[in-house]
Design goal:
Helix content is 90%, strand content 0%. The protein has 104 residues and is mainly alpha-helical. The chain has one domain. The longest helix is centred in the middle third of the chain and has 45 residues, at 37-81. The chain is elongated, with a radius of gyration of 24 Å.
Length: 104
């Protein structure tokens, strides 16, 4: 897994959210004094952009959940294969954390 595989969906999601905000602002401006076709057009665009952003957010959420499950499986496998090494790493991490906390 590389950073670009994570950054691309994030960047696309951010672009979608920016588009939602822009469309919402345009909708607010359009509704101040204008009625009719222009409002309906802007509203339709805002709804479509929002739908797209929600879909991308769901896809990103599913992707993150899948990656997290893979990481958990890998960690579990490593712990089962190297129990003493894992215990040593945990002990050192606990010791370092204790030292850092006691210095405050």
């Amino acid at each position: 897994m590389t950073d670009t595989t994570i950054d691309d969906p994030r960047n696309q999601l951010m672009a979608d959210l920016r588009a939602v905000i822009a469309d919402a602002e345009e909708l607010l401006k359009a509704t101040t004094g204008v009625t009719g076709d222009r409002i309906a057009s802007v509203r339709a665009r805002a709804e479509e952009t929002l739908r797209s952003a929600r879909q991308r957010l769901t896809e990103l959420d599913d992707s993150v959940a899948t990656q997290a499950q893979g990481a958990v499986r890998t960690a579990d496998q490593y712990v089962r294969e190297h129990p003493w090494g894992t215990a040593g790493i945990a002990a050192v991490a606990g010791l370092l954390l204790g030292v850092l906390i006691s210095r405050r």
